[in-house]
């Protein structure tokens, strides 16, 4: 069910302690400013990834930015028409559960901040590598009915697997504005 798959290479982009999308907004730094000190080839790749992450999602797709660190996932939800500079994204401690709207196209962005991981939900998404300094993109259509699908997040360095659950919800309120932000069900405030 993969509609689109692209790979953008970024050197040193994920070295920030904060999520990249938020970093550009909070520090009022453009991708070009952030990447300025890198070698030319790395700078080109860094700029491409920065533009991808700071641009508003295309069409009307929900964008979910997944970052692996210390064997766990953090999730940042970005909504159509909202760029990083608008600060309308919501970052969640996923506890290895990713909540998505049922029956919609979702844009998934994957990266890691510490090691190489493999994300796989057999029959739905993946396998996708999460590599420090790279952002992998996957455009998927979620199942039309609410439910859950199990997958794995595996670290290559220790060959350990952790269960990951994709939860699909039909309740549109789970993705509607609340206090000026959109919060997914299961995402702690």
TrEMBL record:
InterPro entries cross-referenced by the UniProt entry: CcO_II-like_C, Cupredoxin
Top-level lineage group: Bacteria
Signal peptide positions on this chain: 1-25
PROSITE patterns, A to Z: COX2_CUA
Keyword annotations: Signal
Gene3D superfamilies associated with the record: Cupredoxins - blue copper proteins (2.60.40.420)
GO CC, alphabetical: membrane
GO molecular function: copper ion binding; cytochrome-c oxidase activity
Domain Cytochrome oxidase subunit II copper A binding residues, every copy: 59-182
Protein name: Cytochrome C oxidase subunit II, substrate-binding
Species this protein is from: Afifella marina DSM 2698
């Amino acid at each position: 069910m993969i509609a689109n798959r692209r790979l953008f290479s970024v050197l040193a982009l994920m070295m920030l302690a904060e999520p990249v999308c938020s970093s550009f907004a909070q520090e009022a730094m453009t991708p070009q400013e952030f990447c300025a000190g890198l070698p030319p080839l790395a700078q080109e790749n860094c700029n491409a990834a920065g533009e991808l992450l700071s641009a508003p999602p295309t069409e009307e797709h929900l964008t979910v930015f997944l970052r692996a660190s210390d064997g766990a996932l953090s999730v940042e939800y970005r909504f159509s028409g909202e760029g990083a500079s608008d600060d309308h994204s919501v970052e969640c401690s996923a506890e290895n559960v990713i909540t998505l709207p049922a029956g919609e196209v979702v844009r998934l962005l994957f990266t890691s901040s510490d090691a190489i991981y493999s994300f796989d939900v057999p029959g739905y998404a993946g396998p996708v590598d999460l590599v420090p300094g790279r952002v992998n993109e996957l455009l998927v259509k979620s199942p039309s009915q609410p439910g859950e699908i199990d997958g794995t997040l595996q670290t290559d360095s220790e060959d350990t697997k952790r269960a990951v659950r994709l939860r699909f919800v039909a309740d549109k309120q789970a993705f509607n504005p609340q206090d000026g932000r959109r919060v997914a069900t299961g995402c702690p405030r």
